[in-house]
Write a structure and sequence with these properties.
This protein is mainly alpha-helical and 105 residues long. It has helices at 30-36, 39-58, 60-76, 81-104, and strands at 5-9, 12-16. The chain contains 4 helices and 2 strands; from the N terminus they run ββαααα. Strands 1-2 form a two-stranded antiparallel sheet.
Length: 105
């Protein structure tokens, strides 16, 4: 189910169909503002958070390591939405791959 809300970005009100896993009203980080301004990025953020939570339940150390690495890469993107998208897609793939390795054991 998608959450509904409003986010402020660069002085303008943006109607949101999808909300990310964090509060858009409380962020000033360029990568997070980019996510708040883009429904596709917000959806990817939710998917990534879901996979992180799933992995954390099975392998907390791997989940933490992948999350830290992924956030470092995403933050380096700044407000570049293409870069943020690629970093989120890679994080999602990394969480899923680590989870698959855990289930195969």
């Amino acid at each position: 189910m998608l959450a509904f809300g409003f986010a402020f970005w660069q002085g303008g009100l943006i109607a949101r169909a999808a909300s990310p896993s964090f509060d858009c009203d409380k962020t000033s980080a360029p990568d997070e503002l980019a996510i708040c301004a883009d429904d596709g990025l917000a959806s990817l953020d939710l998917q990534t958070t879901t996979e992180w939570r799933r992995l954390r339940g099975a392998d907390k150390d791997s989940a933490t390591r992948i999350a830290r690495e992924s956030l470092k890469v995403r933050k380096a993107c700044g407000s570049d939405k293409g870069c943020v998208r690629k970093s989120q897609e890679q994080a999602l793939a990394n969480f899923r791959a680590a989870g698959d390795r855990g289930r195969a054991v």
